[in-house]
Specification:
With about 130 residues, the chain is an alpha/beta fold. The protein contains 4 helices and 5 strands. Helix 2 links the parallel strand 1 and strand 2. This is Carbonic anhydrase.
Length: about 130
């Protein structure tokens, strides 16, 4: 079964209950699309809301609004924050250390605001390797 078939089955299953497992926040960079789609299908079988924004957690106020809406509208229990290698929104400041720092800060703020949600942070390479940070 291909990934498109899996998405179709997931949509049928989750549309009936109007809730999903997680919200996934990542960068809008097209180079990540295939890696992210496969990762979400594997790690979020209960469905997911997807937020794609330049720089991912770099715009934390927007991310917080989206997490709040996802929780309110779709009863999500998990938050996945994914930054990536060679992010144009970060430019020269986009070192792995900077991404780890921003992801840790975003996780702390989201965990404080939504203590009942599980928050995980990941760093994605352009080769498709996900590392929990």
């Amino acid at each position: 079964m291909g990934w498109y078939d899996k998405i179709s089955l997931m949509k049928k299953a989750t549309n009936q209950v109007h809730s999903c497992q997680a919200i996934v926040v990542s960068c809008m960079d097209f180079r990540l699309s295939d890696h992210l789609t496969l990762w979400m299908l594997k790690n979020c079988p209960g469905g997911f809301d997807r937020v794609a924004i330049a720089g991912s957690v770099k715009n934390l106020p927007f991310v917080l609004e989206q997490v709040e809406l996802s929780k309110k509208l779709h009863h999500t229990k998990e938050v996945y924050l994914i930054n990536h290698e060679d992010c144009g929104a970060y430019g020269a400041d986009g070192t792995p250390e900077r991404h780890k720092k921003d992801l840790a800060f975003a996780k702390r703020i989201i965990s404080e605001k939504f203590p009942d949600m599980k928050v995980k942070t990941l760093y994605l390479t352009l080769a498709g390797e996900f590392t929990e940070v």
